[in-house]
Structures are given as structure tokens and as C-alpha cells.
Amino acid sequence: MSTIASPPRLLIVDDDPSTIRFLSNRFAHLGFEVESATDGLSALAMAGRRAPDLLITDVRMPKVDGPALARTLVRNGGERMLTIVISGYDDPQVRAFCREVNATFAKKGPTLWAEVAASLTAAFPAVAARGTEPGASRAQGQRFTQHRAATR
Questions:
Q1: Model pLDDT for residues 37-69, shown as the tens digit of each residue
Q2: CB of 1 within 8 A of CB of 109?
Q3: 17-22: long-range contacts (C-beta < 8 A, 24 or more apart)?
Q4: Which string of DSSP letters, residue by residue, matches 42-58?
Q5: 47 and 78 in contact (C-beta within 8 Å)?
Q6: Among the listed residues 106, 99, 108, 55, the one whose alpha carbon sits nearest the alpha carbon of residue 77
Q7: Domain assignment of residue 1, yes or no
Q8: What is the CA radius of gyration of the chain?
Q9: Residue 3 included in any domain
Q10: Upper half-sphere CA count for residue 103 (Cβ side, 13 Å)
Q11: In this structure, what DSSP letter does residue 102 have?
Q12: Is the pTM higher than 0.85?
């Protein structure tokens, strides 16, 4: 009997619906199981049910902001979770927060996807090709899961 690995789980948290749609579509095509929330409080509830493999979070959001969300998830066992912080603001405070939670940074704008893909590539070399190919398959997402399992 063969075991089929579940796709990697991604949680996108941003108060901008267009950013959520954009990233959700890209990652769904790569074979990720995508969940999203428009504020950190909702994201905490989702992550409490099942921890994500990857967190993409904005910094400034209602209810619970990105820094509080990431700190809480890391403190509650998410230290192996890849975290990518996205923001329109690239300032020393945002960069300090990224260092604190061992996150990478991607600036919102026309290069957002390239920066997110670069973060994935740096953390998981096996996904380098998938991050840049728009027609990636679900099987490629399974290879990401196998890589995550091997590194845990």
C-alpha cells in the first residue's frame, strides 16, 4: 500500500483581498493547499486547527498584526515553518521583525512574486523550478512536502 503525501499547507494573511487572490492562485497552481485570512486573529484560529508549512503575512493588519501573528505561531511550535513577510513598507522595523522570527521579506509591488519565489528557492532548493513555472503540477507540490518531511 502506498502512502500519498498531503500537499504542503500555506496560510496567506493580508488585509488586501487582491494580494490574497494573486498569491492564492499562484500557489494553488503549484499544488499547495491554500488557506487565507484578512486579519491575524482569524489566521491564529486557522493555524490552531492545523499548523501551516508556510506562512505569508502582511505586517500591518487589523485585530492582530503580522509580527504578533508570526511570534505566536513560532512560539507555539512553528519554528520550522517557513515565514515570508510581505509589505509595502521596507523599513528597519520590518527588517528587524523578519530577523527576530527568521523570516524572509518580499516587497509588495510588481516584483512580489519574484521575491516570494526567491524566498522559497532559498529555503527549499527543490522548489526552485516550481516557483518560476506557471504550469507546475500537483506532483511538484508533493516533492515540496517530501523535502519538508526530510528536514524535520
A1: 999 999 999 998 888 889 999 998 888 888 889
A2: no
A3: 19/58, 19/86, 19/108, 19/112, 22/112, 22/113
A4: HHHHHHHHS--SEEEEE
A5: yes
A6: 55
A7: no
A8: 14
A9: no
A10: 29
A11: T
A12: no
What does the pLDDT look like over 93-148, one tens digit per residue?
989 988 888 888 999 999 999 989 888 876 655 555 554 454 443 443 443 344 33
Cell of 124: 527549499
The identity of residue 111, as a single letter, is T
Measured CA to CA, the distance from residue 59 to residue 102 in angstroms comes to 15
- CATH number of the domain to which 91 belongs: 3.40.50.2300
| The one-letter amino acid at 46 | M
- Does residue 85 fall inside a structural domain? yes
Please give the residue range of the domain that contains residue 17. 9-151
What residue type is assigned to position 122 of the chain?
A
Cell of 10: 500555506
| Domain-embedded: residue 4 | no
Cα dihedral: 81, 118, 31, 12 (round 10) = 50
Q: How many domains does the chain have?
A: 1
